[in-house]
């Protein structure tokens, strides 16, 4: 697979680029300016290990499309990243193809620190029908960024998905291809007594099944084994708040454990070109 990394300015002019076969690195020796983007290009859809900044953990993600662009965060959007991220005048970026054994390994399939509101190419991707005051530190992407510190709120690393006190709030995590899942783990934000918590949440799977999960007042991982199923997305909804004085329940992290489905990535590419989908069963 041919891989390319680029830095482009607000007008689309390429400031730096690097291309390699199966792995490539880009060292950019300038400070970022507002309007610039980091672009990843692949010759075909597939799994890659992506590291767009040395202050953020490299992650195994799935590129459903052949190009992904991340706007370098400035202003409010910087608040959901480490203060060291995207700063300074030297930046090391890298991308490599994932090995078959890495793709087959059971892992948290809902992990993508590179997710963004505008993202439609790089999976998993999180979106929500509400985010507290539209602030980056309460955005849906925070629930899958891998940051689990949860005894404070409002700044990195205490990022979370905030629901703006809306009992109808819902969070969707999309995988971009069929995956087999068998466990869900919730990390509630636990800045007590500022925070409240949910006593019960519901998860609907793309297969049509809905499950309910009881939760307790805790910042620790609350994990639930589920019957293995093949899905393409989940929706978290039906958030039942505890009867306490605080109006602020929030989610720090959701983990969805499982494996890729063999051949599913290839299937997804074929579907985009109009071929009939293959029926997948356990």
UniProtKB/TrEMBL annotation:
Q: Which SUPFAM superfamilies match?
A: Galactose-binding domain-like
**Which superkingdom, per the lineage?**
Bacteria
Would you tell me the protein name for this molecule? Carbohydrate-binding protein
């Amino acid at each position: 697979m041919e891989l390319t990394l680029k830095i482009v300015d607000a007008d689309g002019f390429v400031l730096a680029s690097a291309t390699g076969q199966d792995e490539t690195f880009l060292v950019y020796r300038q400070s970022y300016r507002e309007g610039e983007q980091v672009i990843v290009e692949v010759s075909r859809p597939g799994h890659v290990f992506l590291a767009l900044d040395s202050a953020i953990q490299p992650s195994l993600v799935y590129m459903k499309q052949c190009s992904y662009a991340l706007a370098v965060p400035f202003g409010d959007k910087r608040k959901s990243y480490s203060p060291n991220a995207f700063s300074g005048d030297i930046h090391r970026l890298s991308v490599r193809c994932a090995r078959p054994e890495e793709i087959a390994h059971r892992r948290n399939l809902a992990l993508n620190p590179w997710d963004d509101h505008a993202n439609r190419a790089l999976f998993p991707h999180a979106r929500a029908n509400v985010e507290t005051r539209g602030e980056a530190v309460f955005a849906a992407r925070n629930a899958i960024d891998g940051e689990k510190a949860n005894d404070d709120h409002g700044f990195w690393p205490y990022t979370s998905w905030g629901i703006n006190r809306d009992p109808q709030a819902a969070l969707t995590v999309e995988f971009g291809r069929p995956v087999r899942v068998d466990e869900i783990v919730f990390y509630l934000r636990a800045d007590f007594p500022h925070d409240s918590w949910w006593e019960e949440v519901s998860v609907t799977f793309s297969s049509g099944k809905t499950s309910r999960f009881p939760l307790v007042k805790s910042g620790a991982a609350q994990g639930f084994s589920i019957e293995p199923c093949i899905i393409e997305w989940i929706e978290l909804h039906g958030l039942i708040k505890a009867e306490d004085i605080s109006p602020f329940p929030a989610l720090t992290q959701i983990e969805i454990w499982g494996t890729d489905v063999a051949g599913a990535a290839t299937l997804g590419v074929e579907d985009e070109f109009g071929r009939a989908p293959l029926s997948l069963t356990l």
